[in-house]
Amino acid sequence: MTEPLVGRALPHESAVRHVTGAAPYIDDLPEPAGTLHIAPGWCRDAARGRLIGVDLDAVRAHPGVVAVLTAEDVPAVNDCSPSIGGDPVFAEGVIRFHGQVVFAVVATTRASARAAARLARFEVEAERPAVTVADAVDRDSDVLPPYAFRKGDAEAALVAAPHRLAETVFVGGQEHFYLETQVAFAEPLEGGEIRLLSSTQHPTEVSHVAARVLGLPEAMITCECRRMGGGFGGKESQATQWAVIAALAARATGRPAKIRLDRDDDMIMTGKRHDMRVDWHAGFDDAGRIRAVDVTFLARCGHSADLSQGVVDRTLFHADNAYDYPAATIRSRRLLTDTVSNTAFRGFGGPQGVAFAERMMDAVAIRLGRDPLDVRLANLYPDARSPHHGVTPYGQVVDGGILQALIGELERTSDYRARVAEIEAFNGASPFLRRGIALTPVKFGISFTLTHLNQAGALVHVYADGSVAVNHGGTEMGQGLHTKILQIVADVFGLPLARVRIAATSTAKVPNTAPTAASSGSDLNGMAALRAAMIIRDRLAVKAADLLGCPVEAVRFEGGRVHGPDRSHSFADVARQAHLGRLSLSSTGFYATPDLVWDRENGHGRPFFYFAQGAACAEVVVDTLTGEMRVTRVDVLHDVGRSLNPALDLGQIEGAFVQGMGWLTTEELVFDDKGRLRTHAPSTYKIPTAFDVPADFRVRLWEGESAVDTVHRSKAVGEPPLMLAVSVHSAILRALASLAPGRVPPLDLPATPEAIVVAARAMRHPASGGRS
Amino acid sequence: MRGSIRYLSRGRVIERSDVAPTEMLIDHLRLVRGLTGTREGCGEGDCGACTVALGRLDGDRLVYEPVTACIRPTASIDGCELVTIEDLDADGTLHPIQEAMVRHHGAQCGFCTPGIVMSLFTLWAREGEVDREAVIDRLAGNLCRCTGYRPIVDAALEACDARRDARPPITFLVRAAEAAARLAEMADGVDVFLGDETRFFAAPRRLDTLLELTRAFPDATLLGGATDVGLWITKGGRDLPRVIHLGHVEGLDTIVEDEEAITLGAGVSLERAGRALGRLDPDVAAIFRRIGGAQVRASGTLGGNIANGSPIGDTPPLLIALGATLELCSADRVRTLDLEDFFLDYGRQDRSPGEIVTAIRVPRPTAAQAFRAWKIAKRHDQDISTLLGAVRLTLAGPTVVEARIAFGGMAGTPRRASGAEAALIGASLVEAASWRAALEALRLDFTPLTDLRGTSDYRLEVAVSLLGKALAEIAGTPTSKTRVFARREGGGHD
């Protein structure tokens, strides 16, 4: 019997093209004759204020310039918001943040467009922008109403608790730094139709919004995406504006038009992970068991709502991480600041919630002088095998828990207890260098919390020669979704991978899709593709039974052939016979996640199909005088169910961990008091390099059966492992805590070298107050 | 004189006379030649997605260096072999690096992958053992946001290890030999001058020709490795009508070592300078290794790093502490000055129009001298220093008789800490209390700025800590107690 492709560590479907440079991204495709190039124009001197005048004469006069587009050139609606509005394609009358696009130059070359874009002159009645959480709180401005979850009577439980602790912690934002900057290409077709190529996680939204802005029926706009050079959430809603500008340029000039953002422009003009101030207050007992939590997340959303409702909701959904709070009030504000609109980023608000929960565990343990792992274990939700289940602050029963067992195994394999003792001995004899270790779990809810997004479609064609083409609604950004889909579909027909082709994601093939986000790509699209393929296979099986002279139930598809009990036909032969027999060899497939109930108004329901779970143990060494830090070892154990492709899943886990580590250590977004982002290039914004990755990095997949009815019993993997990196921050905190036992180091996130020095100084000299 | 530039590509000489001084190699590849495997990720030489390999002759040996095509002017590759991602599998089979990258799942989104493959190709093409550290070092200038690097490092190690047991693919050897022969033929030793007096790119061969040019065109932009000037164009949007490239000037890239000193031509790359100077002290080696990534060090020059007058460095504070002197030449005179005197003020150096930094002389520390240096940055590799401190003490027994303490990132220029230096004279290594005056004096030596890399407080605090560490280490505290990143006694890097 041939081994199925599902479950094998096969290379990415584009691997050979990746390494040879032959996998084209949008800017690499041959340009049709007459293609024009677009550069965005913006006011470099203002973050907020009334736009009194824009002088574009010099821009228009620049050699090569064909057109200059402003708000006046928008035929229908000047808004590219993914939600409630407030995201003008071009600023109109007012500048809302530093980097807001005011106009677009369309020119014969990119160089000409970019040079011309710098020539505009603006007259702005500048106002002082609200930049920080404190600014927004002072101004009392929100993009969306406050929202909270409540479980039990937290107020009373806090008062009754034997111990209480309160803290304010800042959690930093994060730039996506996908390697391919935002890019889109628009081609005008006959009758006003437009074909868009967009590096987007959400082609449906791109064509939907383009249609809205241009005043066209959605059916007249097709959006395609073969692959992105990274997305990470940064191309979920914020790829749209660029595609829309390209569409406007194509419509205005009648020529194909392309926009690719310069890296600095990209970093200045697109949103990031939300930074937050977290004010928390907890009550607990002598063992460190939480009695009550009262926490407020003050999220800096930027100038518009964008996806902030869902993002900050997810912070609340994960403020419990893996812990059973008997009573909790979990609040949030979505603050309006005069800065770029913050957006989706791998984890979608969840990481900030998890970071809080783990900080609280550490703080409680430090205060009580207990090992933080013991405090974590004392608070974990019960495992599935336990006679009782925990209930989250939003009313979902946690019935698939494995963390007690998983953490137990990681504790053993990482040799946690012995290393704790060894580290304590080291720290006792080392005045300046301190080591720390932490083992932290993650429990991450899988499903879009906007329930209607939990649907997917696919389209599978079998051609008469037996080759197969697959379309589905998901997009490929490097995560290997297309590879997994190919494995799934090829197995349905018993074909080798070479006989199945994945086609670019296109709204013309599969409409009304959800974004490829929320780690849901293979759960949703894998199931839809599986169903489409099964429908065709069922038809082929009837034909094959005929040819093979056996009952349908006896037909097997395997090894490129269709088998009966005693003989077989090639798959191609069966396909040809089916075609001659006038059978449809094409089918759509559709999937909607079952059993989801979510009542947002009352903060109650079962928003998640299941939870993805895992844990990591990280060890660090810190120089308390300079803030230099090194991660010396990391052990990860993570549950992906029955892996569709262990190599790809391992890649997601390792990559997410390192990305999360960057968020919590070296990646620091600095806005000045004028609202300008100062860290808008890789020279100033530091994502991890190869050196930062621990040399001793042991990642394993949890071996256990999944009880959840997902495609081939696999589990989502895109986002959850990012939060495993919280272990690194916890380990740094613990290293610093050794300077003054019993005191919680005032260490914010990210733990940059300076943040470490500031916290260390506060530990040594409490009067200095620490955080400035 | 030649009115065109020429380079070798797949055994073919490509000659162009219509290259603007500001045209970057990436545009030449993508827009002119239609080779789109080389991709722009940042446009400032920091992400490595556009890495290509430049081959040049070192004696009769062909050496490949990684170069970021986004900030490298096309005209400056005259006389080199250019190898891009499209060339590695030109014969239809994957290069061993590519094959290993596939096998180890080293690509996810794939956008950065060609740059990573090209960086690793230059490592693979080099002779000798390749260990994990060498791979990480070579990858410092390549950002990947997807994989977490582990599979890439594994792939590189496997492919490089395989060279031990099997000779490189014959096609590669044949191609390299042919390329070397062609490059030797192409080396005509003549001056290159593209354009006219109003707009030109000039690459003189001789120092006197260079000085004539700088006298005639004192406003011309001097181009070393373009790792800074390139950004004026790509990010500053500046037009540089007149460019004089120093890369062909004979004698500007020599390294002369004698018993007292190492003298380096201003055109010596940071990579070569680091290898030569790294032998003076492990901290010098470690800090050179942390200047940019391999791409920046291969192109960037020591003279450029000094002459551009950055307040940070990284080389000036190191070299000032080591007691380096600078040689400047113009058509009329040659003069020498102490390196610290070159930096007058933020953005202002002691260099007249038409004058050129030609050499740097670095005295070897004597047996009575001890040296320590630290680079502090948000990220260990390929980051601009928040501050960089270097200390050289001259000792008589345990007593300090002379101190040179220099910092970058603490003022508008790299500067000596004169107060702390004076306060250290007479201090004793065995008497920690005698260091206190110097540590206090250091707080008065500088009033650093607050910027995106760090606050004034942090800089000052860490500067004092570094001086304290230097004294403690020189007094005998083992570095295992003072450092997160080890000091490698006796070992530079290759």
Task: Give a summary of the structure in a few sentences.
The complex is a heterodimer of chains A (772) and B (494). By secondary structure, chain A is α+β, with helices and mostly antiparallel strands.
Q: What's the average pLDDT of chain B?
A: 95
CATH class category of the largest domain in chain B: Alpha Beta
Uncertain parts of chain A: none
Give the overall shape of chain B: globular
> In total, how many beta strands of chain B?
20
Number of strands of chain A: 31
Q: What fraction, in percent, of the residue positions of chain A are helical? A: 25-40%
Tell me the strand order in the biggest sheet of chain A: 3-5-1-12-9-10-11-22
Count of all domains of chain B: 3
Terminal CA distance of chain B: 37 Å
Fold and architecture overview:
- The complex is a heterodimer of chains A (772) and B (494).
- Chain A folds into three domains: 15-19 and 455-592, Aldehyde oxidase/xanthine dehydrogenase, molybdopterin binding domain (Aldehyde Oxidoreductase, domain 4); 31-128 and 176-269, Aldehyde oxidase/xanthine dehydrogenase, molybdopterin binding domain (Aldehyde Oxidoreductase, domain 4, 2-Layer Sandwich), CATH 3.30.365; 276-449 and 599-768, 2-Layer Sandwich (Aldehyde Oxidoreductase, domain 4), CATH 3.30.365.
- Chain A has 19 helices and 31 strands.
- In chain A, helix 10 (350-368) packs across helix 11 (372-379), helix 14 (481-493) runs parallel beside helix 15 and helix 15 (521-548) packs across helix 16 (571-580).
- Chain A starts with 14 loop residues before the first helix and ends in an 8-residue tail after the last helix.
- Chain B has three domains: 6-186, Ubiquitin-like (UB roll) (Roll), CATH 3.10.20.30; 192-245, Uridine Diphospho-n-acetylenolpyruvylglucosamine Reductase, domain 2, CATH 3.30.43.10; 255-481, Enolase-like, domain 1, CATH 3.30.390.
- Chain B is built from 18 helices and 20 strands.
- Chain B has helices at residues 25-32, 85-88, 96-103, 113-124, 132-139, 150-165, 170-186, 207-216, 229-234, 270-277, 282-289, 294-299, 302-307, 315-321, 339-342, 418-424, 436-445, 456-474, and strands spanning 5-9, 12-16, 51-58, 61-68, 81-83, 192-195, 200-203, 221-223, 242-245, 255-257, 261-265, 325-329, 334-338, 343-345, 348-349, 356-363, 369-376, 387-396, 399-408, 415-416.
- At the A-B interface, helix 1, helix 3, strand 29, helix 17 and helix 19 of A face helix 2, helix 3, helix 4, helix 5 and helix 6 of B.
